[in-house]
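Progress report, Aim 2. The chain analyzed during this reporting quarter is listed below.
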Amino acid sequence: MSFKPMFNFGPNETQGNGLRFATYEEAENNAIEKFRAWSMPSGYFVEESPDPVNYTWDEINGTKSI
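Predicted structure tokens for the chain:
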């Protein structure tokens, strides 16, 4: 199991990408980081995914591929 960051684009559209994290906190921090950089999303959230973990996040390095 992994966690994927998700983004809201208006009231009826959500999108994610291929990033999967081992913890909810890593996925949420990545979503916060991306949300601050992008101008189109109106919000973000995290949901569980059956996909394998392929990224990590920490305060010093941000998002890194593993």
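Residues 2-65 form one domain. The chain has one domain: 2-65. These observations will guide the mutagenesis work planned for the next reporting period.
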